[in-house]
Q: What sequence folds into this?
């Protein structure tokens, strides 16, 4: 959606919700009234035909009905994104992969019964017996069941970590970029400190010393995100620095709207694309870090998950025992698979928010122009180094 | 100049913050290592006073001191380079770290250097032959490699090249039974041991080539390039002076991010390859609940990253004259 349209959206919303203090309605008559006194000429020298009405006083002749608003909302948030995503194989593949993981994490847990030591023969290879499709471990546990039953906690960890990253990162970035001055100095200093501290070692130290607090996936995700939010905060701050000087923010300031209103209604919507794409990337790095730490045996764990499986396989010598390769490979494929899904999703989301592609899809015209497939590939992969 | 001083101050502040965090975690948290140590060791000794003295030797913190005095003591001893005694390695933390740092730096610097050199050349070639089979294949490869965690790659490389093919040693950092020093077998042995860790970082850094590719393509479309061609400059001059220079500029930023994450990644890699660097000792310390060594390793790794980022930031102006002395968002 284009910028001008976005502006009109906010203004219209303000008109309708005239109850809130400091809304646009209250201010317009004042401005118009003061301007009105001098200008009585019907035709101005520049050819404009401004009658007694000042341009500040003109209001839309068409009132927007509730139906129109619902329609616009659907167009903006559902139909256009859907239209873009439908044409993009990466989006379809990404969604398919992630839905598969979510299905495994919700339904699969009930379909595959949990496993226990001596459940089957020791170190049965993959695809050798249909009772244990992916083979068994050296203690006779079913590899498939272990992989399936670790999915829910990994998904919860991923979500909580990703949410924490973007909420803290956005809050720090927006506030410090918009407020400036002392607030900016303080918040930026904190951000810089966190950017300079290497993430994985910090998480290892915290995980070791705060063992008692991180006994569930949610807090664990938050802990992993401690090392991840600072980069986002820095990036968002520099974007806010440019947005805050845009005319629509300046006019909002001139209308004396509250800072909270400006930040949430004017500034934040412009950052949303960036934030959403970053959330998907944060989810990926959280999973990578979590599995790495489980693999190292640093995080406390109660039940098997992909990282613990890797660790167990590694410790029982799967590296030099070909008979145990499946035990090592299943968690590896599980991690890489969800990462592929997240990368594809991030790349396609990039396109959903790309104004040029949006514009092409907005009017639902049958424009079949081939889309430059890899122009945006490099942006989302840049994040890869941040493990 | 002013900016440089501020940037330096920021680095010092970060180091201070990390040391303070280390103090806070070892002394102030409920169930902190110092209290736990005294509670564990105290009953075994005849004189309970001894437990406090031992705690001070190991962790530089005397539990009997008031917090502010303990803090000042801790900071001064840390600044003197005394990071306490390791509980599991029977040596001072500073000695262990001093011995481990060169190995980590050796592997990391080569991994970063090779990764970027190859990434830049490949990226430039991909941009030059944009849309060709070479470009499509490498872009696909880089995207796939991005979705595989580097430690998974390291494990696969270890299985393939060390255990199956026996080309490289499976563990360790130096050859057995060879005298250390500047002799050929030792040097070759060291490189032989370092190749797999370096290679697994390098394979995982396909992202450098993608970034370079994107940058080069962007530069290829610039107007000044058309002007350069119209002026009849040689292709070589255009490629090196115009395209490469401008495309590499933004890569410097990526390089700085890479430094930080590679030191973090080194922790996992060194454990996988049993390569006795800083990260390896950190994990050993965590396993043995050897808090002085763990905090020492964390502090040293952080300082290493802070210094490399500081150097990178301060030299950025040399590479990009536009940045000059201004405040720039370098990374």
A:
């Amino acid at each position: 959606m284009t910028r001008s349209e976005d502006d009109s959206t906010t203004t219209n919303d303000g008109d309708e919700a005239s109850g809130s203090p400091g809304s646009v309605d209250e201010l317009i008559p004042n401005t118009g009234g003061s301007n009105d006194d001098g200008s009585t000429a019907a035709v101005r020298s520049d050819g404009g035909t401004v009658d007694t009405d000042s341009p500040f006083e003109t209001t839309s002749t068409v009132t927007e009905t509730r139906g129109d608003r619902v329609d616009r909302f659907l167009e903006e948030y559902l139909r256009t994104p859907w239209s873009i995503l439908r044409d993009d194989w990466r989006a379809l593949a990404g969604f398919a992969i992630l839905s598969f993981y979510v299905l495994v994490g919700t339904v699969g847990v009930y379909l595959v019964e949990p496993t226990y030591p001596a459940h089957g023969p020791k170190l049965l290879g993959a695809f050798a017996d249909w009772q244990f499709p992916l083979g068994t471990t050296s203690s006779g546990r079913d590899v498939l069941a272990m992989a399936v039953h670790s999915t829910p906690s990994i998904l919860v960890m991923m979500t909580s970590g990703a949410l924490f990253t973007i909420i803290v990162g956005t809050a720090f970035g927006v506030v410090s970029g918009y407020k400036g001055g002392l607030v900016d100095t303080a918040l930026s200093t904190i951000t810089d400190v966190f950017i300079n501290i290497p993430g994985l070692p910090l998480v290892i130290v915290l995980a070791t010393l705060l063992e008692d607090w991180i006994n569930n996936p949610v807090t664990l995700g938050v802990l992993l995100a401690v090392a991840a939010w600072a980069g986002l905060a820095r990036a968002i701050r520099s974007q806010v620095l440019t947005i805050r000087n845009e005319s629509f923010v300046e006019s909002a300031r001139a209308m004396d709207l509250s800072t909270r209103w400006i930040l949430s209604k004017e500034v934040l919507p412009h950052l949303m694309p960036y934030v959403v794409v970053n959330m998907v990337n944060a989810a990926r790095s959280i999973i990578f870090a979590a599995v790495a730490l489980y693999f190292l045996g640093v995080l406390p764990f109660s039940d098997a998950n992909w990282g613990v499986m890797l660790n167990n396989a590694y410790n029982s010598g799967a590296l030099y025992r070909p008979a145990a390769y499946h035990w090592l490979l299943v968690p590896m494929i599980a991690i890489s698979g969800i990462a592929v899904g997240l990368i594809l999703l991030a790349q396609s989301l990039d396109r959903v928010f790309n104004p040029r592609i949006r514009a092409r899809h907005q009017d639902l015209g049958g424009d079949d122009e081939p889309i430059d497939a890899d122009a945006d590939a490099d942006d989302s992969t840049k994040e890869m180094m941040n493990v | 100049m002013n900016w440089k001083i501020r940037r330096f101050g920021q680095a010092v502040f970060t180091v201070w913050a990390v040391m303070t965090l280390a103090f806070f975690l070892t002394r102030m948290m409920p169930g902190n290592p110092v209290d736990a140590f005294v509670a564990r060791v105290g009953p075994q000794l005849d004189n309970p006073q001894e437990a406090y003295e031992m705690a001070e030797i190991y962790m530089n913190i005397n539990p009997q001191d008031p917090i502010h005095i303990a803090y000042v003591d801790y900071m001064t001893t840390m600044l003197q380079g005394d990071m306490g005694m390791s509980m599991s390695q029977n040596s001072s933390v500073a000695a262990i770290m001093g011995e481990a740092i060169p190995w980590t730096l050796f592997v990391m610097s080569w991994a970063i250097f090779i990764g970027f050199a190859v990434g830049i050349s490949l990226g430039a070639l991909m941009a030059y032959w944009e849309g060709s089979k070479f470009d499509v294949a490498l872009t696909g490869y880089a995207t796939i490699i991005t979705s595989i965690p580097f430690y998974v790659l390291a494990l696969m490389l270890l299985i393939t090249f060390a255990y199956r093919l026996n080309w490289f040693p499976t563990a360790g950092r130096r050859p057995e039974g060879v005298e250390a020093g500047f002799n050929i077998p030792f040097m070759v042995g060291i490189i032989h041991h370092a190749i797999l860790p370096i290679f697994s970082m390098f394979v995982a850094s396909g992202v450098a080539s993608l970034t370079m590719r994107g940058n080069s393509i962007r530069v290829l479309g610039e107007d000044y390039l058309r002007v350069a061609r119209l002026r009849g400059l040689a292709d070589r001059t255009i490629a090196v002076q115009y395209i490469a220079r401008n495309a590499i500029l933004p890569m410097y930023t990526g390089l700085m991010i890479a430094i930080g994450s590679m030191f973090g990644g080194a922790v996992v890699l060194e454990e996988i390859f049993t390569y006795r660097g800083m990260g390896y000792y950190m994990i050993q310390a965590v396993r043995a609940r050897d808090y002085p060594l763990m905090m020492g390793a964390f502090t040293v790794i952080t300082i290493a990253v802070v210094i490399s980022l500081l150097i990178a930031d301060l030299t950025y102006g040399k590479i990009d004259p536009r940045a000059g002395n201004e405040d720039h968002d370098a990374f």
Remarks:
- The mean pLDDT of chain A is 74.
- The domain at 90-351 of chain A is CATH 1.10.3720.10 (MetI-like fold).
